[in-house]
Amino acid sequence: MDQVSEQLSLDTIDLALLDQLQLDASLSNQDLAQRVHVSPPTCLRRVKRLREAGLIERQIAILSADRLAPLLGHGLQAVVEITLERQGQEEQEAFEARIVSDEAVQQCYRVSPGPDFILIVHAQDMPGYLALAQRLFTSDANVRNVKAFFSIRRAKFEPRLPLGGARA
Questions:
Q1: Which helix (H) or strand (E) covers residue 76, if one does?
Q2: Could you count the other beta carbons within 10 Å of the beta carbon of residue 65?
Q3: How confident is the model at residue 146, as a pLDDT?
Q4: Domain ranges of the chain
Q5: CA-only gyration radius of the chain, Å
Q6: Which of 11, 61, 112, 117 is within CB 3.0–4.6 Å of 82 for a Cys-Cys bond?
Q7: How much is the average pLDDT of 148-154?
Q8: Averaged pLDDT for residues 36-53
Q9: Cis omega (within 30 of 0) on the bond before 159?
Q10: Ramachandran angles phi, psi of 81, nearest 5°
């Protein structure tokens, strides 16, 4: 934990702000303040402090993969398990650095026990996935095993973290 996070304490207003921002980061400061029952200047000051502490990494738009698929052809998502031959710190960091730099990789987790990494990848179609697999896995001599599971339907996608104590 970094020094800023160690010194930061969160109260119910901070948690409520974080919770509301997870729901809709496009809210105006005025609307956000109203939802958490504080004045707009207090809201602005607190959100700034939460950003500076690194609790708010970035604000993004979450796109609808299902609605974009017919327009762009992005129709193949896979959960991929990767096991490395050599699992030393250096080898894992080298693999991770190469993987996270590829835009087809949406999420990357180091896990234990079992495989070394779990990836969520997105490709336009099966030939696109095969090119991705060649680029990221087959060409790496340290990759021992690759197991891919192709998504048929996404039942839930929720990037929101549960924040106990948040009030609105």
A1: strand 76-84
A2: 16
A3: 97
A4: 3-52, 65-150
A5: 20
A6: 117
A7: 91
A8: 97
A9: no
A10: -95, 130
Helix (H) or strand (E) holding 32: helix 29-36
Q: Which two tokens stand for residue 63?
A: 């796109």
For the domain made up of 65-150, the CATH class stated in words is alpha beta
Whole-angstrom distance, CA of residue 168 vs CA of residue 26: 17
Q: Give which of 139, 142, 141, 95 is closest to 117, Cα–Cα.
A: 95
Exposure string for 111-147, b = 16+ CB within 10 A, e = fewer: eeeebbbbbebbbbeeebbeebbeebbeebeebeebe
Domain 3-52 has CATH 3.90.1720.10: no
Q: How far apart are CA 50 and CA 14, in angstroms?
A: 8
42 pLDDT exceeds 60?
yes
Check: CB of residue 106 under 8 Å from CB of residue 65: no
Output the pTM of the full model.
0.80
Q: pLDDT tens digit string along 58-96?
A: 999 988 877 887 888 767 899 999 999 999 999 999 999
